[in-house]
Amino acid sequence: MIDAIRAELIKMRSMPGVWVTFGLAFPLAVLICVAVLARAGGPLGHTFSHVHTLRQRRELLGAGYFGLEVLAPVMGLLCVTGEYRHKTMTTTFVLRPVRSQVLGAKVVATALWSVLLALLTLVAVVAVGLPWNAALGGVTSQVTDQLGAVVPGLVLSAILLGLFGLGFGTLVKNQIAAILLTIGGTLVLESILIALARAIFHYDLNWLPNGAGAALAGDIARGLGGGGRGAGFHLLTWWQGGLVMLAWGFVPLVAGYFTTFRRDVT
Amino acid sequence: MTSANAGSLSAPRGLPLEFRSLSKQFGTVRAVDDLSFTVQPGRVTGFLGPNGSGKTTTLRILLGLVHPTSGTATIAGRRYQDLENPTATVGAVLEATSFHPARRARTHLRMAARAGGHDVTRADEVLELVGLGGDARRKAGTFSLGMRQRLELATALIGDPDILVLDEPSNGLDPQGIAWLRDFMRYLAGEGRTVLVSSHLLAEMAQTIDDAIIVSFGQLKAQGTLAQITSHLTGLSMRARSPEADRLCHVLGQAGLPFRRLGPDEVAIDGVTPEQVGPLLASNQVVLYELVQEGADLEQVFLSLTSGLGFGAVAQGTPGAVGVSDR
Ligand SMILES: Nc1ncnc2c1ncn2[C@@H]1O[C@H](COP(=O)(O)OP(=O)(O)O)[C@@H](O)[C@H]1O
Ligand SMILES: [Mg+2]
Description:
The complex is a heterodimer. Chain A is mainly α. Helices cover 76% and strands 0% of the residues of chain A. Chain A has helices at residues 2-13, 16-40, 54-61, 65-85, 89-95, 99-135, 140-144, 147-172, 175-201, 209-217, 238-261. The radius of gyration of chain A is 19 Å and the shape is globular. Chain B folds into two domains: 3-230, 3-Layer(aba) Sandwich (Rossmann fold); 236-294, 2-Layer Sandwich (Alpha-Beta Plaits), CATH 3.30.70.100. Chain B is 33% helix and 24% strand. Chain B has a six-stranded mixed β-sheet with strand order 5-6-7-3-8-9, sandwiched between helices. In chain B, strands 11-12-10-13 form a four-stranded antiparallel β-sheet, covered by helices on one side. In chain B, strand 11 and strand 12 (266-270) form a beta hairpin. In chain B, helix 3 (105-116) packs across helix 4. The longest helix of chain B is centred in the middle third of the chain and has 16 residues, at 175-190. The relative contact order of chain B is 0.14. Classes of the chains: A mainly alpha, B alpha/beta. The interface between A and B is medium-sized, with 25 and 35 residues. The structure holds adenosine-5'-diphosphate and magnesium ion. Residues 55-56, 95, 167-168 of chain B line the site of magnesium ion.
């Protein structure tokens, strides 16, 4: 099994699409740092300021989360749709004929790369966000004190978002369709559904992937409240969000395994 | 002979392949229909049949890629997916497989080595083995068709397998590539490995294979050594035209070959091959104007077997069409 995982890691390492997600994670994290520091300066955001409230500190540390929301699922689905797109599934299954092992190895590989992706965003914060905050008069240790509160949620949601993409890719197979559906689904469709549910049913639709991931990520995902989740929106608690994300991660994966993944490869 | 000598291949175990009442239904198409045959180690076995006769499907079933509707395909009694070390047992070059275009040849093979549980140093060994040593760092997407075939072969050899399965491997290869592949397959079989190679062109395979399995519409049509198949299926007959037909008959009679006088300068010789008759007549300095094989040649055997016409059509032959004249 270790061998199968290492093979999957080599595959992901040699896929340009995976490097694109890594290439985007860093600048996106930097951009969010800028946004956080701008907001810290006041409601209009005309002046930059160092972060003062607890939530702002956590937002700064977790600046990478908003990139991860899109990039982790995309990376996960590249891991499987890339095989269909380039017709490499035959080779994969000849080398590893037990398909549950192949999917298991993809789960672990995706999880590991998602962790790396999350850590890369932390590097962006440390390299750009923290020095800038310090330059604005902030105390770095007051921010880094919050690492323990931020990193677990950040990493865990990155993993589960990655697995969500992997499972989704296993179900959909077509790479372009999967990417469009993931980005469109999580960024556009989810926001629309949330808005509609609020307007019509006065209901906070908080268990869709982004909302659930945000709950798991905790304070860091609250402040900038993307995805139609405006003020007063009730997120799930972090553990509820975690469980819902676990379902979003594994239900498509299991469904994909029992439908497309075990089919004849001709 | 080939660069195959450079590789470090271990002694193979000599495992047979067994197909038992194998069938596969794709919707309304019966791709494989109650197919049974065995492939022996130490020989190159041709798996022959026209396009669409179920060869690829059969091989994909063997490798656990396609689930059979009924029947079994086993390697020394076990399914591929149940083998302890599948890639060390069977190496496969299948049709319509591909590489990630951005992956370098060596990276691809290192991945394959990892996946199969082999040492990653095997990657460079098999690259040398197939003559791609100089292209290790090139991306697979930039490879020519011939190089891709070699890279596929390298992938198949990653686990130093006892059995090699190749599906139409000469598609897209140039004549040198085909000759190289032929030598390579013969070399591997010579070491005691089992080699099963599919093709829709019998003529191309005739010089490579020891045994043949001939299929059509998913059904077995013939199996055995090439000689068995051709001799037993054709009323092979030679026709000779000579200005000294009497002396020709005398020589044939002395050699114990059955002959029939067709005309003043024409003689038919039954149940022999041109390889037998030609040298005999040459050593006796019989002048020939013509020496023609009247039965079917391999390709005709193949066509008649696989078109469902039966043997009658073969025996008629087409005079002049099949020229095996004295050289
Ligand atoms: N996935 C599939 N779905 C439907 N029909 C298929 C599929 N794969 C192969 N076939 C059909 O099965 C038959 C045998 O195909 P194949 O095994 O590729 O033959 P060969 O390799 O001898 O050319 C053909 O009629 C082909 O169209
Ligand atoms: Mg075929």
